[in-house]
Amino acid sequence: MIEPIYMDALVFSSLLTLLSIGLTMTYLTTRVPNFAHGSLAMIGTYVSLTVDKVFKASIYQNLYLSFIASGLAALTIYLLILKPLRNRGASIDALMIATLAIDIILLAIFNIYTDILIREFKAVTGRKFLLRSSDLIIFNQRAALIVSLALVVVLTTALYLLLTRTKFGIAMRAVIENPSLAATVGINTELVYSVSWFIAGGLAGISGGLLPLWFLCDPAFGSTIVVSIFAASIVGGLYNIYGAC
Length: 245
Hints:
By secondary structure, the chain is an all-alpha fold.
């Protein structure tokens, strides 16, 4: 039997790996240090909470909803806020402050939605929530442990194959190396940026969708965990997508 402290470390490090890969991807492609990345994960968390408490459905079977919701949110943030700022020549400091503002807005939305879940749906009794009772048991271990480890292996491998074995992956690597030259040879750089943000948001959403199965969450959890996400990305290397692994 694995000691609880080691299981906590395994789950947290696995989910943090996916979060850090997403953060690194957006920084490599668009040079935006996204301080709202933790809150993108919280979108996935609230999708899981809603699926479990409101619709009484399986979190694991609907985990793809967390990916889609957070991916679309990240794509929207890029297209409506960050892309216009970049087109106007905004500095990296301005882009960073913009993501901080987005994080504050998302935090407010999470607080409002939590109040709705408490008062209208009676889904939770307070702002802090934990969904361990909704977890499954696989091989005498809680499913969140096995699923989080499996997702790191599967998704990291899939990302590696995407970047090395597909035309889009080659285009993305070209854009990362030299955006101007990539555009000159006909690569749609904006499409690469958009897909990168969607994938990064999706990875954050999957991580966030699993977080409440193991850790006590609240509306501000994403803003808290973003420090750890940046730490993992920096230690692994902000110019290496696989550094967080």
